[in-house]
Amino acid sequence: MAKIRHNNFFDTINESIAEAKKEGVLHLYSEDEHLTGNTIKINGKELFHFGTTGYLGLEQDERIKEAAISAICKYGTQFPLSKTYLSNPLYNELESKIELMYNIPPIITKNSTLGHLGVIPSIINNEDAVILDHQVHWSVQNACSQLKLRGIPVDIIRHNNCNMLEDKLKLYSSKHKKVWYMADGVYSMFGDYAPIAQLLELSKKYPQLHIYFDDVHGMSWKGKNGTGFVMSKLNQLPENILLMGTLSKTFGASGAFLICSNPAMREKIKNFGGPLTFSAQLEPASVAAAIASANIHLSEEIEFLQKDLERRIDLFHQCVSKTDLPMIELNNSPVFFLGTAMPATTYKLIQKLFKSGYFANPALYPAVPIKNTGIRITISRHNNADEIKSLVKTMNDLLQETLVETGNNRQKIGRAFNTNEYRISKEVPLKTPLRFNIKKTINDFDKNTWNNVHNSETVLDWDLLHYLETVFKNNPASENNWEFYYCSISDEKNQIVVATVFTLSTWKDDMLFPESVSLEIEEIRKKEPYHFTSKVLAMGTLFTEGNHFYIDNAHPLAEEALKLLLEKAEEIYHESNAELMVLRDFATDNKWNSLFHNHGFIKIDMPESCIFDKMDWKNSNDFKNILSKRSRRHFKDEILAFEEDFAVKIKNKLTAAEIDIAYNLYESVKNKNYAINTFTYPIEVFQKMNNHPQWEFILMYLKKDNTDRTIGIAFCYKGNDHSYSPFLIGMNYDYLTKVNLYKQILYQILKRSKDLNFKKVNFGFSATFEKRKLGATAIPKVAYIQSRDNFTLERIANIQKK
User: Fold this and answer.
1) CA separation for the pair 187, 335 (Å, rounded)
2) Domain 62-297's class?
3) Of the candidates 214, 237, 213, the residue with the CA atom closest to the CA atom of residue 101
4) Which of 4, 285, 489, 637 has its CA 20 to 30 A from that of 523?
């Protein structure tokens, strides 16, 4: 009954990337006829290149380029044969060179992504468990998705959180032969490191712990023979650690490799590692280039290159230390992150840097959480001292004006990245002729004024909000205690430009995930009732749906008013320590989509909302004629054919016994439907409903029972905007299909609204198919969400992929 359309997160990601493309900061093309590594030409302008991952500049080394050219002349552009059968003539030499670097024979792969896909399913047995660092590279997470099909548990911990890792080890080590932890050596966005020393201590304490490192961003610029950051901490590779390195990026060639010190495991991977077996092998040019680079790595020259890069990194450090640029995770890797928090600031600052002659990478969702956007700056040997100094000065000169232009400040950045250094910055209030008003109770908001601005789009009238305020307070369970924030913004003439209500309440994190996910989580909630729940600041309430937001789009200050609302909502969000902010329910094509995105919100699909407004009918025959041909048959066979079986009563007040029965019927529906998974309302909701003049109850009985035994009930609100809203329904499921009870309740709701001369029925979410068959219109809706990080949603998505 409660099937709904769930959000497709690929659409969410596509929306985010599409916005960045529109701003001209992603999916760009280099226009150079000849690349040097120092500059890059985009849109006809030559820019200093601070976005490369070729940190040592080896991709431009003449020896490596000449080796690749020579290999093409000798062996052709490719060696079109699976490596399982025969390797091209250069492979043996490359493997020998990599073995000299690590003192362990390598397994060469086409690239690290295919390498993970080949290795991970091969090394993880059905008796094992896997724990992922929240920020481990997507290619590792993607490879682990195959494991779930085999029933292997794949869990996630917060980034570099060894305490959380140990808790998971305690959970899994007694049940699984091996527990694999997967992490990056150097993380590609913030340039921070895996806590290797702590991981080694944990491996001593928990012998089941095995570690899989992706160290492609730690290669070459660190470690003896350029063996990478991880090896610089290990010196030699234990059998319980596997390492994926790269032949591309800093190595200057193409491809990747796995280092495994366990000979039996290495042979198993090599014999049948999925893509390692069936994919094409590296081209002769790539192998020859990798051999030439390996020769450099095996010589004393690599230490000179590393130190030369280190001097440039140190210079960048020195220059940044003289500014108040909000750099995140400053360390000695070549990857740096300038936090901006808001996508709008990132876009604008990147555009200004381009105009000033500098190329850097925008770091955007989903690579980072939506409010952890920023600019990733990489330092390479291609960058000279003057360019590094000039870049830092330019960023410092441009940042403040960019923050002002985008309504941002350092305090917001500090809050987004949880850095105390920037929290102490004083926030500069916006200069505006608009006035912001906030009330904590609807009693302080003039009734006529409120109803005038919320008069047709939603069931959000003054009386309903007053009822909700009385119901959702002073309850024993925390989820049934809500805080209300009535916000309005007026111009100098006291004309309301924007008005809405926010509520602060506890939500189930899986509320809009598929039912299968909620069913799995609900099993855990039997012991841990608040597992996967969060404090949420949301536009509207969990009880209502429809447009909770009023804006006078024709007002010349409409956009400024909306920005002010977001500014004030963010203050409430942080002061209340909410974990999620939700703006709902907007039309899919609303004009403010880009503004919400630029202020750090991602768009998600909401369930469709159903409205019935075809009130020009007098009887069942008239009603049938407003339906489609197929729906008429459905109405005749599944509803009219059973209508005479029912006795229907409309009551404004129930007895105490009837309330108990009604509540049991409500619980029956609630406990069978997880498509929109919320907390069960307490009985006080219905007791206070019973004493409110605008609520009434449609009770359903079976005539043949000759009793007053209620088998169905609709809890309906008579809105001030002439709308009729069945907020909740209760049913005895024994009669769901016998007499089509649910369908009959829907029809009786329509009849009652017609008798009351109401203009429309707000049918709400879920069961869209059944409501459409009765003539309702399904209206697509979207919400905009902002979270402190992606961790919780990704953990739930991880359940969804099982």
Assistant:
1) 9
2) alpha beta
3) 237
4) 4
